[in-house]
Amino acid sequence: MRRYRSGKIVSTIGPASCSPENLERLFLNGVDVFRLNFSHGSHEGHAQVYDAIRAIGKKHHCYPTILADMQGPKLRVGTFENDKIILESGDIFRFDLDPTPGNTQRVNLPHPEILEALQVGTTLLLDDGKLRFEVLSCRPDYAEVKVLVGGPLSNRKGVNVPHVMLPIPALTEKDRKDLDFALKLGVDWVALSFVQSVKDVEQAKQIINGRAGVVSKLEKPLAIKALEPIVEISDAIMVARGDLGVEMDPEEVPSIQRRIINTCHRMGRPVIVATQMLESMITAPSPTRAEVSDVATAVYSGADATMLSAESASGQYPFEAVSMMSRVIKKTESDPYCVRRLENDTQLPHKTVIDAICAAAKDAAEFSSASAIVLFTDSFETVVRCSRMRPTCPIVLITESEVLARKAGLCNGVHSICNKKEFSVDAMCKTAKVLTAEHQFANVGDNIAVLNDISERSVTICKL
């Protein structure tokens, strides 16, 4: 099924969208990548969703992409005697390892690794940053803190420790079980939460061992400090603005988002912009103008994909949210300024053979007014390098591998078709003509640029 836009839509699946009928409706409304959030749901439930998505692909002769998002380490305080307390600015409070219910003077922090990493002056954030504390003194079994910003604090609220490298792995024991299950299902991508360093990605990639692509979620200031090496070792990146906005000042997030996108472009990694994109559509049938502008800004910046979270997982208007996002992406991409804005140095070809042929294909398509670039390849790297060039026409990937066809669904402008492998240029041109016409990418009389990455690595202009 052809999409008349290049940017991809990632949709989180949850109670509002997990039935086979609703999944198909989401797909028809424009979802390219289905996100299974392993912070919620059961293995049985995720397996049913997985099977339904694969059935939709067979029914519509296409290859929807499935992303398994790992929960990552969840750091939380314990419980309180009366379930909730009120803290005032200036109060002195204590976090400790005592498992008994807390009160207005103290609460259990069942994470010795946090206490061991704290120093005097360290900032602690609780409940998505609503409460802020400064460490006055600390030992391996407790931390005495001053309340900088007070408010209500209830049971098991989350804890964030900005700018501190915590000695915890990105994959918890739960994550490892979830990851093993997701890989056995056959997911196309795995997202790692709370990446702090290159080591976190290396450990995950060692476990995954090529069975899925790795998306590193950037939601910690420490990850931003190690941005380039993390981008380089990852297969794709997610700008996870929720936790990033908790641990950093909100006014810093837009420039960091742009920096991440530009770094991904320069290094050739697909990038997803996520969190609160159409947040008001959880409860309203239309978004705010600011949210529409937010999606458009991600498109103008060159994001490969934009993501819906609660909007499609538990919201009242999941289908309307997908349709709206699709319309905004399509309209923004039709703006000539969008094309001009993307023509910057982050898309300059690298001095490699793959970039040479991808740049040649882009130029050949542009100067011949081609309706599509038809890419014959078995290599995901070639798909990514071609997508990175941001040609103004669609990239039609023709491959024998369903695994590659599904994985490529995250890449901007790429549309996958599975077909038997061709080796000669003549056979490729013939197949390209038939398939582009059949899938409505080109009409009789149109030019197409055929990029051969199977045999001799060449670019050919063919006329339908």
What's the alpha carbon Rg, rounded to whole Å? 24 Å
Mean pLDDT, nearest integer?
A: 95
> Order of strands in the sheet with the most strands?
1-2-3-12-13-14-15-16
Total of helices: 17
CATH class division of the largest domain: Alpha Beta
What is the helix content? Answer: 25-40%
Could you name the CATH homologous superfamily of the largest domain?
Phosphoenolpyruvate-binding domains
Distance between the termini: 20 Å
Overall tally of domains: 3
What structural category do the secondary elements indicate? Answer: alpha/beta
- The parts where pLDDT drops under 50 for at least 5 residues are none
Q: Please tally the β strands and state the result.
A: 21
β-strand amount: 15-25%
Q: CATH topology of the largest domain, what is it called?
A: TIM Barrel
Assigned CATH architecture of the largest domain = Alpha-Beta Barrel
How would you characterize the overall build of this protein?
With 464 residues, the protein is of the alpha/beta class. Helix content is 38%, strand content 22%. The strands form four sheets. Strands 1-2-3-12-13-14-15-16 form an eight-stranded parallel barrel, surrounded by six helices. Strands 6-5-9-8-7-11 form a six-stranded mixed beta sheet, with no helix packed on it. Helix 7 packs across helix 9 (253-267). It is elongated. The two termini are 20 Å apart. The model has no long low-confidence stretch (mean pLDDT 95).
